[in-house]
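Lab notebook, design round three. We kept the backbone fixed and only want residue identities now. Task for the bench partner: fill in a sequence for the structure below.
Input structure tokens:
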């Protein structure tokens, strides 16, 4: 059974994603969370269950921690928000990038500087970074630089964590850490699934989320 058969389901493209225009200036997690809160409130919905995948999980964490009155329950699916520990190789790579970027700002390079800096970014940046430009690239940098681990202890809404067993983008270790830090949360591992666990195992994910929502609704009325 689809969730929309039982619940009112809202899904929209965030600014800069899908068919929505980018924000006017670079946004971070707080700005995106404020946008979602305003959008839901504008529909006359005082509280809602928030379901967020990956980047959307960041928004859910921030909302639940900073606007608890607006979040009835929280479902985090392969959620981002935990900053990975830097490896020695990673630190060397970051140092090399910053050193080269500084050198490419020298006035002697003239008009070639911006072109060379873009090539540098293409070489060192992640796939997501390379796929974005302008305000959305700046928004991505602003977002990923914010570690939400400190917010997790402030999440009091009933929380379900769903994680793909083979997720490499947001490793299952992140889910286990969130389960430890979010009071009363429960982690469900989706066997054989990757970062898009809801696409890899849609029937299983739908059933687990449906059971969770039923339980939170019963708890609210019981």
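Proposed sequence:
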């Amino acid at each position: 059974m689809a969730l929309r058969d039982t619940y009112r389901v809202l899904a929209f493209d965030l600014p800069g994603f899908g068919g929505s225009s980018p924000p006017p200036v670079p946004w971070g997690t707080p700005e995106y969370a404020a946008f979602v809160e305003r959008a839901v409130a504008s529909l006359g919905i005082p509280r809602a269950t928030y379901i967020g995948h990956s980047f959307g999980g960041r928004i859910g964490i921030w909302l639940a921690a900073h606007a608890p009155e607006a979040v009835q329950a929280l479902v985090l699916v392969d959620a981002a928000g935990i900053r990975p520990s830097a490896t020695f190789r990673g630190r060397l790579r970051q140092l090399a990038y910053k050193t080269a970027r500084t050198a490419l700002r020298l006035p002697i390079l003239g008009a070639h500087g911006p072109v060379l800096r873009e090539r540098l970014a293409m070489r060192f940046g992640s796939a997501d970074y390379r796929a974005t430009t302008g305000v959305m690239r700046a928004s991505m940098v602003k977002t990923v630089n914010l570690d939400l681990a400190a917010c997790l202890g402030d999440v009091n809404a009933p929380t379900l964590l769903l994680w793909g067993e083979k997720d490499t983008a947001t490793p299952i270790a992140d889910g286990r850490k969130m389960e430890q830090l979010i009071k009363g949360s429960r982690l469900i591992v989706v066997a054989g699934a990757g970062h898009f666990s809801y696409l890899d195992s849609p029937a299983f994910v739908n059933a687990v989320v449906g059971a969770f929502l039923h339980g939170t609704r019963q708890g609210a009325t019981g």
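Keep this in mind before ordering anything: The chain has nine helices and four strands.
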